[in-house]
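Handout, section B. The chain below has 261 residues.
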Amino acid sequence: MENLKAVSIKKLSATFDGNGKHLQVLNNVNFSIKNGSFTSIIGPSGCGKSTLFRLISGLPTKDSCKIDGKIRIYGKKPLTACSDKDIGLILQTPTLLEWRNVAQNMKLPLEIMGYSSDNSNKKVKNLLKLLELEEFEKYRPSELSGGMQQKVSIGRALAYNPELLLMDEPFCALDEINRRRMNNEIINIWKKTKKTILFITHSIEETVYLSQKVIILTNKPSTIHKIINIDLPYPRSEEQDSSKYFKYIKEVRGCLDEASH
């Protein structure tokens, strides 16, 4: 895995044809992501971020979606990578099962995959410790805050040890304080697990705060407007008042304005 690109996308285009309509969403998208990195994708509302996310993750798109180009996840097609459990998904809504407690929700994918009870329990115990959720092991989802529910969702995605975490605006429903708290949590998780993270967001500050690389998409038909490398040390909380941090905020904002026209 070390020498393979985590994500490689070449000449990717996506068009929806149906009901007499022809809508090109993606047009000649090209980028790659190295193993172990943290990359964010940002673009104007409705530019096709969600379509791109679904194509990378192997999730189904509409039957009318026609795809050209190549997507590879560690050298594999997305469906193969998904079947091989190389991909973990964290979506906007945690979608936890209310009749299962925190530990049981995190254990669910392991049960589906046929892991032994002892092995599953050991993995979940380690994840509870990693995510600092040990004291909430028996809680039901409705007893947790939105941020903590998302932590359980992250734990569930990490349960089978995927190489790549795909995150689709996972903190968009949180208030500013809890969103920043979860930003710090996901950076800690990334550093501890050394996973590759591809993070979809609409927040300029979030993308600078989290990422090593920012991919900026244009309006539909969406292509790459610019890729910006964020050369700031972690923890970013110590960089927030620096001129360099604000320079990146300004650069991403300016590029996003250009990409919107």
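Note. The chain has a mean pLDDT of 92. Compare this with the example in section A.
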